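Hey, quick one: can you model this chain's 3D structure?
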Amino acid sequence: MNKLTTILLFLSAALPLGAAVPLVTGGKPVAEIVLAADAVPSVKTAANELQKHLEAMSGAKLPIVAQASPDVANQVFVGESEATRKLGFTLDDVKYDGFKIVAGKNHVILAGREIDLFNKTFYKWKDLRGGRQAIWEKMIGHKWRLPPMIDPRDFSKEFDFFALDGTGTLYAAYDLLEQLGMRWYAPMADLGLVTPKLADISIKEQNLKKEPEFPVRMFTDVKLGDSADAFLWNKCLKGGVGTPTFVPTYHALSGPLAMYPTEQPQEYYGKVQGKTLHSIPRLSNEKLRADMVEYLELVDQHFPGMDYVSLGQPDGWSLLDSDDTAAGWDKFSERGHSGRFSDYAWDFNLDLRKRYMEKHPEKKFVVMAYAITSRVPASLEKVPDNMLVVFTETSAYWMMPERRQELEYRNEWIAKMSSKDQLLIWEYYLQHAPNYSFPPVPVIFPKLMKESFSGLYDHSLGFLVEVGWKSGADVTKARNEPQIARPWISHIMLYLHSKLCWDRNLDVQATLNEYYDLFYGPAKAEMKEFFEFAESIWTSPEARQITASGGFLKPEDVDRYFDILQRAKAKAGDTIYGKRIDGIRQEMDALSLLFEKLKRKGPSLQIKASKAKPLIDGDLEKPFWLEEDPKRYGFYPLKDMLTGETPEHVETKVAFRWLNDNSALIVGIECIEPKMSKLREACEAADSPAIYGDDMVEIRLETASGIRPFIAINSAGVVLDECITERLEDLPNFYRVGKVAVKKYPDRWTAEVQIDAKPISGGRPTKFLPWGVNVSRQRMAGNEPEHYMLSPSGTKFSEPTCMGNIFVRK
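Sure thing. Here's the predicted structure for all 810 residues.
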C-alpha cells in the first residue's frame, strides 16, 4: 500500500460512513476485549489500557476474555491471533513497528508489529543496575568499559517490556482512543490527559494502516521504567520511544580508552608538547585499532542480535596528537572547527570497517558526525552503503545565524548518501537538564522543529533525542512523577516531535490550537498568547546568555510571562485547567528571582562538580579536595570585612564542591591560627546565639528559589543552623545541616560541611540560576576581634546584598 492510499484510508475513517461498531451504549458495555492467552506483555498492556480508558470515558468496563463469547454482540480483538487470521487480517504488509485498525461487521481489530529488541539483546542486564562494570570486566577479561548502549532503567518491571521495543498493538490501542477524543499531552496521569465523557462509544468502520515516517525513535536519559505513567506516556506518543531495529549509538572508542586510562597501553593516547593526554585518542596507532576490533567483537558476543557495530568517537574530544598534527591531519585551516578532525576520524572508521568485515561481512556500522567531525570529510566521495552516520544537531538554536550551519552540514551528509538508512539524527532537547546552565523558560520553537523535520523525511532513519532529566535530588519512584526535567514547560515540544515522527503532513498550528482549547479550556486564548510569546522570546536571534541588563531574555519579558499566566489562572480558576497553569507557574517560579540574583555585588565563583562522596571528617588534604592539583582546586581567600584587604598575619580559605548527583554542596574552610591555645570556644549548646562570641565561621547561602540557610560553626564543632525566606510557606519545618566536622592542627583548624540540597529546595547552581554565597570568619584568639569575609560587606556578616554567586561549571 502506498502512502497516498494510507492517507485516504485515514481520511475515510474520520468520515461519518453510517456503519460503526458499538462498544458502549447508555453507559453500559455492549462489547468485549478479546486477548489471546499467550499474548506478549506489550499486547496485554494494550488490552488493559484500552479497558481502563474506555471505562474512564464512559463508566463502562469492557471485560477482557481469551475467546469471543457467543452471547456478546461485538468484539475488540487486541493483537494478532487465530481469531483475527480467520477474519482475513494480516500484518504482512506493515513496515517497521506500524499497526492496523480494522473495524466492521461487529468487530474491531487492533494489532501491530511487536519487535522485542530487549529480550533478544539486553535481557540479562535488566536487573543489574549496580556493579555491571565489574561483571563486564570478568566476562571479557579486560578493563574496558561496558558499552553504554541502553539504560536498564528504561525496562518496566510493572509492564514487563522495554521502552524501546516496537509495540505496534499498543500504538493501535492508543490511536483508537485518540480517535475518540483522548489526548496525552503531558506525562502526568492525573493532569496530563484529556479524557472526553461519552455515554455512547462506537468505532467508525475503517481499514486503517499507519507506519512511522522514522522507524528509529528514541528518547534518552529519562529512566522510563522508573515511572509507570511516564513510560506509558512515551508509548502513547509513539514517537518518543519505539524502534524496529536497535542502532547502538554510543561513544564506542571510550570502551578501551576511558575507564582506567593510566592502566591502558599509553600508545592509545595522543601527546601534546611531549605530555600524554588521556582525553586524546591516537587514532593512527596500530594497537588501538587492533584492540578496538577485539572490543567490538566482545560487544557483539555479549549483546547478540544487533545488526550494527558502533565506531563512535570519544565524548569531549577536542585535541590532536602532535605527530598526527605534523602529519597534516588537523584540517582546521581548510574545514573550520566542525570539520577539523573529520578526515582523521574517517581514516580510522573506514579502516576498522574493512578489518571487521573480513570476519563479519554482514555487519553494518555506526559512526558519528559530532563536534569536530560534524562536516563531511573532504576525502569522502560517498558514504558506504553499510555505514550509518549519527549527525548531532540542536535545531532549537537555528534562529541564530551561526547555528544555521548545522543545517548546511546535515545537507552535505545527505548528498553523500544513497538511502535514508544511512542517517540518524542525535537531537538535543536538553536545555532544562540540571547540569546545563539554563533558566526555566519555555523552550518553544514549533516552526524551527517543522523545518528540521521537513528536511529529513525520506532522508533519515530517525532520531535519538536527549531529553532533560531530573536532578538526583528530585528523582522519585512515585508512579505519577515523570523523570524528565520541568515536564510542564517541556511536554508540548516533545508531543509535537512525536506527532511529526508519524505524520509529515501534520498541521502544526491546528495541533497547537487544539492543545490550547482542550488542555486549557476557558484560558485557551491566554495560553495561546503565552506560548506564542514564549516562541518569540526563544527564537530571538540574540545570544543565549542572560546578564543583569538583559540578553535574549529581559526583565520586562519575565514580567510578561507571569502577567499572562496570572490572567490565564484567573480565567481557569481552581479547575483542572487552572492546575495545569499552576504547574507551569511553579516550574518557572525561580525565574521571578533571576535578575535580582544577578545584581549581587560579590564575586562569581565557578565551582567544580565531583562524582565522589567524601567522608565528612574535617580533612581538607584528602583526594576529594586535592583532585589532581596539589595547590587544591578552587580555594578562595577571605578578606578583611571592613577594608577588603587580604591579611598577612592569618589566612582563611574556602572551597566548594557540588556533588554530581545534585544531592549536596560540600564546603571546606581552613582557618590559619598562630594562637591555637587561645581559641575561644565558650558555646557548648547547639543553636545557641552564644556561638557568636567564639572563634567561628559562618556560611550564608541563598538558593535559586529564595531559601536562605545559614550555618555557624565554632572551632569546637558546635553548630547553629537555621533557614530564612521571604515566603514562609517555603520554610523547612526543622532545618538541620547535613553533616559537619571540625579538625584541629598545631597551626590551624578546619571545618567541613555537607549542605543537603533537598531540604532547601536547592537545584544545581547554574550560571543563569546561581546560588548566593558568603563565608565569614570571626577570629577571637588575637588581641581583639577580627572579621573576614569571602565577599566583604563593610558592615556585618548578614548583609545580603554583598553576597557573591556560585555556579557549577558545565
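One thing worth noting: Residues 322 and 403 are 30 Å apart (CA to CA).
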